[in-house]
Amino acid sequence: MRKGGSSFPDKVILSRVGGSSLDKNIVLTSFPDRLAANYSSANYIQIITPPSCATQPSNVCVPDSSAGCLYTTPLQGSTNGTGQRPALGRPPAKRRLELDITDHQYSEPAKTGRGQKAALSLKSPKAPKTPPEKTRYDTSLGLLTKKFCQLLAQSSDGVLDLNQAADILKVQKRRLYDITNVLEGVHLIKKKSKNNIQWMGCSLTSEGGPLHPDQSLGREVLELTQEERRLDELIKTCSHSVQQMTEELHNQKYAYVTYQDIRRIKSLKDQTVIAVKAPSETKLEVPDPKESLQVHLSSSQGPIDVFLCTDDSPFHNGLDVNGNHAAFLKVSQENGAGGTMDSLTVNGSSNGSVNRNDCASPTDASHSSATPMSPLTSSLSSILQQPEDQIPFVSLSPALLSDDYMLGLDDEQGISDLFDSYDLDTLPLDDLLV
Amino acid sequence: MRKGGSSFPDKVILSRVGGSSLDKNIVLTSFPDRLAANYSSANYIQIITPPSCATQPSNVCVPDSSAGCLYTTPLQGSTNGTGQRPALGRPPAKRRLELDITDHQYSEPAKTGRGQKAALSLKSPKAPKTPPEKTRYDTSLGLLTKKFCQLLAQSSDGVLDLNQAADILKVQKRRLYDITNVLEGVHLIKKKSKNNIQWMGCSLTSEGGPLHPDQSLGREVLELTQEERRLDELIKTCSHSVQQMTEELHNQKYAYVTYQDIRRIKSLKDQTVIAVKAPSETKLEVPDPKESLQVHLSSSQGPIDVFLCTDDSPFHNGLDVNGNHAAFLKVSQENGAGGTMDSLTVNGSSNGSVNRNDCASPTDASHSSATPMSPLTSSLSSILQQPEDQIPFVSLSPALLSDDYMLGLDDEQGISDLFDSYDLDTLPLDDLLV
DNA sequence: AATCCTTTCGCGCAAGGC
DNA sequence: GCCTTGCGCGAAAGGATT
């Protein structure tokens, strides 16, 4: 259909006509004559509608007064000075140092606060009329701050000269100091040099200038607090999900881990893996490897099962406290006061590469032709009655509460690495970083 | 497996041992004995590692002095008052209104600024020794702002009582007003009620309270700029995708629209729909429906085809410039200087409901047993040779550039409504709003 | 280091607004 | 009355000059 004839239209317009609302129309698609750029000029369809239904421009529009009319009074009405003002809003503001005897309009109220500590006579409470008296609101720090920010936004590099600002905003420089000091305290601003400050922006709206992530101490604390709260929420959610999943009777039969599952974890590739099954209060102690290659486990609530999963031999590499098996694995059991104390020493060739693993979920395992590792523990024998070739490694107990997570990670890993199987990436948290 | 025996361990630990890095271990899962809360005390496994590899606590830690020692001087050293001070940092700060004659240490400098405008004698420049003189910096607005923020972070709900704050920070309330006013100007804070302000935080760390997106003007401009850029990016991406899809030869055979497709668009339900197929420069003019129910189309690059799709009769409702057909549809063709001018008037019963439509994609159409509407235009006859019952409505031309979109939407609709089929929801943009 | 000038800004009075 | 806050004095801090 490549330009079969000059009569080939190249746009399709769907015009919906519902009753009298003729002005509502839809152009489904429209497109030029493509690649073969025959028409050098842009081709497009113009839709001309009556003014009444002019489509809202999707342009950004700044709500408050935009640059240029900085002196509007957004929230409050104008004043009613001596009587001829709209009368809405606040009553007239009196006292104003500058309007001493001279009543020249718009007298630069202050310049740099320099030599103008002269007049201060007896504040004439009622100035004639013209002098645009400002309400208290008009000169408020809050409003001034807004104006100041606008000004700041104006400059592309985010740098602003205070004298200039004071001039434009027609305020004493003193007031700007109030603003800059506070903003600096929140690290939204930075003193660049004498009379010059620079906008830093909040960590996300960075732009213009050295975007050091906002590090105001106060802000940081706040943000971290927020973050913490969010994480708490996430943890709660995750815990809940897991609990739900585990409680669900339908899932019970999948609640186990096979040797395959473990071996499939990429980050454990070529590693000597020891699986420990123990009561929750069990203590796992790992002394500095420089001293001795040992792991101490102690439990007072029940027995500890230890399994060794090597990479090569898929069968019968399991070991437990009762039937230790491998040469380099020594498992001893001592009986302490009110508990057992096991200690074992391991040895193996290492390999440091750690990728984000694709830890196979238990459910996943049901599809694999598992080459199981049979646990030799007697206490597990009951679970061993599993269909087909899936001999479970160990089964999971249902509930999983937040404070039961205990993690040990590589240096390169973060907490998120433990949550791979929960697909943390789809949770809102990460999306915050765009 | 519901508590089959007391020998049932309730945790599984996977200990990875890579070479000598014994301290690197992973606990795959760990969970307590669930629902049947037999153990009232918390169950968990402790991992004890040597100090050298102590895991960084994931807790929030306040960098600056945390509450309680608010009077440290983070950036500057302390003063060297009369001589016995550390001598580093700034020279001694003199003047301090409160330290008149009495030199009682830590005299509450101010309370609420109430009745304490008494002493102010002749600032005794050198106070004996003990009075912890403060440098100008110590009492600076900037520092105070930081402290203030810390305090704010302390409260979980982000609400802070000013009197309380003034009390804790040992400053006149007046100073806090300076801070709150400015912060309010930047919308980091909100006046909640008399004596109470609330933290709003930057738009992303929202939480706790009505999270009005931060609307400081300066901030807003910056954020909108970002947003604009992001949208530009999205548009570019979308355009590119569409172009790719259209150019892909494999997709060519699906590049058409059937009568079914159009009728399937929910928002067009019970509407009189007119499809227009015209060159891209075609002008579509819709006068105010109050004046006349007319649509004017004009093209100078090629013929215009107009199709009427009514809801009921699936067959032969198509119309084009040459063979007009329906009573209420008048299509006239005039020959202007270098173009054609068509004008048509339509009439129909309306229906206002507009839902987010599920505009069927062209590809989708291949599965439908379409009841096609055959276009009567001669120029289209070539495309009519389609397999089976799928008589295409009109075929698409490949390229589709961004400025070739021309949209006409209902008032209730937004631009996104046009992008439904691209599943804009899965794009990062929306995720920003958590 | 003494002097002077400029910039920064603590501070609290008193006006404004309930 | 109380809370809020504009306002500007005057001192401190930071150069610049000699």
Textual characterization of the structure:
Chains A, B: Residues 95-106 have a biased composition (Basic and acidic residues). Chains A, B: This is Transcription factor E2F3. Chains A, B: Residues 73-136, 339-382 are annotated as: Disordered. Chains A, B: Residues 136-201 form the E2F/DP family winged-helix DNA-binding domain. The structure is a homodimer of 434-residue chains. The first copy, chain A, has 434 residues and is of the alpha+beta class. Chain A contains 8 helices and 14 strands. Chain A has helices at 141-154, 162-169, 173-185, 217-247, 249-252, 259-263, 362-365, 428-431, and strands spanning 11-17, 29-30, 46-48, 159-161, 189-193, 196-199, 256-257, 272-277, 283-285, 294-299, 305-309, 330-336, 339-345, 394-395. In chain A, strands 9-10-13-12 form a 4-stranded antiparallel beta sheet, with no helix packed on it. In chain A, strands 4-6-5 form a 3-stranded antiparallel beta sheet. In chain A, strands 1-2 form a two-stranded antiparallel ribbon. In chain A, helix 1 (141-154) packs across helix 3. The radius of gyration of chain A is 37 Å and the shape is elongated. Chain A starts with 10 loop residues before the first strand and ends with a helix. Chains A and B meet through strand 1, strand 2, strand 3, helix 1 and helix 3 of A and strand 1, strand 2, strand 3, helix 1 and helix 3 of B. The structure holds a DNA duplex (18 and 18 nucleotides).
